[in-house]
Amino acid sequence: MTPHLELRAAGxxxxxxxxxxxxxxxxxxxxxxxxxxxxxxAGKSTLLRLIYRFLQPRWGSVHLDGRDLWAMGPREAACxxxxxxxxxxxxxxxxxxxxxxxxxxxxxxxxxxxxxxxAAVVSRALARLDLAAxxxxxxxxMSGGERQRAMVARALAQEPELLVLDEPTNxxxxxxxxxxxxxxxxxxxxxxxxxxxLNLASAVCDSxxxxxxxxxxxQGATAAxxxxxxxxxxxxxxxxxxxxxxxxxxxxxxxxNPQETSS
Length: 263
Description:
Elements: E1 5-12, E2 21-28, E3 33-37, H1 44-51, E4 59-64, E5 67-68, H2 74-80, E6 81-84, H3 96-101, H4 116-128, H5 144-157, E7 162-166, H6 174-187, E8 190-194, H7 198-204, E9 207-212, E10 215-221, H8 222-225, H9 228-235, E11 237-243, E12 250-256, H10 258-261
Parallel strand pairs: 3-8, 3-9, 6-7, 7-8
Antiparallel strand pairs: 1-2, 1-4, 4-5, 9-10, 11-12
Helix pairs in contact: 4-5
């Protein structure tokens, strides 16, 4: 069966410099959630930019349903792939509803105005992110967490096949972090997201891609990759699993190595 998303030895770097990311090969079935983790500077955001077609691979290729992303036109790609980035616009003189409505733009032709279907899609997206009561608020007056939820709602209004999220829980309080993770599991979309919080990654991801210095250090089932013996050398810390009661779930704790704390 053809993977829904596939990277074939994909990499990127500036034309006059060393690679930022190299030789990433991964295949993701439709509806699976892939977590991309690793230290700062590991290449996570660069990898996501390849997947949502912001950067064209310098080496290898990225495919959606067996088609090279760069064989698609921009509109077709935008109808299939939505991205939620860490950077949040804050100076738009638009309401939350108008921001979410921007997600419908790839599906429109010319200067076509909103139809009933577009309005219904936008309303559903607002409701799913608990934003219906804030729909007419100016976007620039919203808190960081509210803006983040609006950007996720805009991505859902795009009705994509593939959703890419770069640190989507940034700015969110604990309640909305949990609600967002539950929503992602419920969407049944193919999802690629980067996360710093490895325990959140463990809770939501079917598989994990661990990057270090622009290269893949481990990939596979979540429990296999988020293993203390694998994570410790990559992050330069001691990792210990703890069993939480009463849920019985494993929780990772992180500690500086003794030699790094000695004076």
